[in-house]
Amino acid sequence: MTESTAPRAEHRTVLLRGGEVHSPADPFATAMVVERGHIAWVGSEGAADAFATGVDEVIDLEGALVTPAFTDAHVHTTATGLALTGLDLSGARSLTEALDLVRAHSAAHPADTVLLGHGWDTARWPEQRPPSRAQLDEASGGRPLYLPRVDVHSAVVTTALLDLVPGITDLAGYHPDAPLTAAAHHAVRAAAHAAITPAQRAAAQRAALARAASLGIGTVHECAGPEISDEDDFTSLLELAGAEPGPRVVGYWAERVEGAKDARRIRELGAIGAAGDLFVDGSLGSHTACLHTPYADAAHTGTGHLDSAAVAAHVTACTEAGLQAGFHAIGDAALTAVTDGIRTAADTLGLARVRAARHRVEHAEMLTPETIAAFAEFGLTASVQPAFDAAWGGGDGMYAQRLGAERARTLNPYAALLRAGVPLAFGSDSPVTPLDPWGTVRAAAFHRTPEHRVSARAAFTAHTRGGWRAIGRDDAGVLVPGAPADYALWRTRELVVQAPDDRVARWSTDPRSGTPGLPDLTPGTELPRCLRTVVFGQTVFERLNE
């Protein structure tokens, strides 16, 4: 496996004691020893005395909780950093407020060649429509401006940015005064990102990784590709992450592979797979997810980019090259194309070879019993984002607007995936939804559709160990002897065991059950506060004075 990690300082042997250590090795553990970047021992406070004089450092946890560091299995790092340092419209409550934010941002950044923003969502606005080009031209002072929708599958732009893209009006997805999609969107995004200097890009990457570390995230899966970013962005991120302390970055490059030469090029870029956002379709919010039957609020079925034959060719070539393949697929028709294509590859190569490759599918929202069964059969990892349901689920959410209430209730069926034996890896798709690991675990445990809820323990596992399993590592993401010392310290309240069924939850809190507890994630309760994040034994974040 290729991954980027910062150079490691000389490792010290550290004893952590006097807290709560979340470990399947000992559900009542209060202490842990870290040596040479790995977990060396986990156990009770009494046994910790035997280590106290033979270590370089003793850390009094003062009751803090120690857990494995989170893995965010789907991140766009530079875009996340640009959203953190640039114009963020995710909090705008109306079209008018969004335009006011554009005016203020433009005034505050007079030297920027192109203004960049992110996060608008008309589903949350009373006007229920995006800004017109004329409104954006006025608010930006006539400057180039690129504003992708929250799902990053469409964007509104100013006339000045369109003028930087010759032939834009002839590209698919161009609309004179509506959000741009498809090739037109990709073209304006490329023009906008080309204006970012290397220094701006590095600052954005550092900002994103620092935010991740402050939230107890030890690893991010960078989902890059030619239709999302560019090679320089991808390789510079891996280089930066390899040179500076911070979360480790595992890179995916979403480009189709037709043979050994293509696979070799993917590896030369530093990617571990030709996966991530290799688009089979688009998104529900932008009406570009590919459906079997039309949208409830539009007379079409979205956009398909790859059919089952293209999927089969990619998976076959990747499997033969020993490379992980993967796809972005949201709509039910897109997911059918993925599973049909992988079935064809399995018929050609043999089921065992396909399963061993651990191919993955991003988002996987509109699953059916048939496609869930296929995920299980082919050993596919479902790389999913529970915050999507928190943001857009429910009877009056965006999903219901796009699909109708009945179809919307079928989305993001995490419980059914787990029952079928499908491995889950949780992520944020940041900046689509924010980096927020405990919020993600909460969103899965308290899914807006009750039958799709999973236990907090299962959700936590999907957001820690699940990301490691998704890259082929079964020995990490858990605090047991021999595992990499990626962990986080948390200030939190009493630990409990939560499950979707109240009877199970009450039984499981009995200490005799031997189940390690987790913070109470009931909606409305305060989420844990990260005190320290450690990656391979090295502290990459520490909250001072706590």
From TrEMBL:
Species this protein is from: Streptomyces lunaelactis
Short name of any one Pfam family annotated for the protein: Amidohydro_3
One example GO MF annotation: hydrolase activity, acting on carbon-nitrogen (but not peptide) bonds
Ranges for domain Amidohydrolase: 57-541
Keywords: Hydrolase
Record CDD domains: YtcJ_like
Annotated protein name in UniProt: Amidohydrolase
InterPro entries the record matches: Amidohydro_3, Metal-dep_hydrolase_composite, Metal_Hydrolase, YtcJ-like
The keyword Hydrolase is assigned to this record: yes
PANTHER family reported for this sequence: IMIDAZOLONEPROPIONASE, PROTEIN LONG AFTER FAR-RED 3
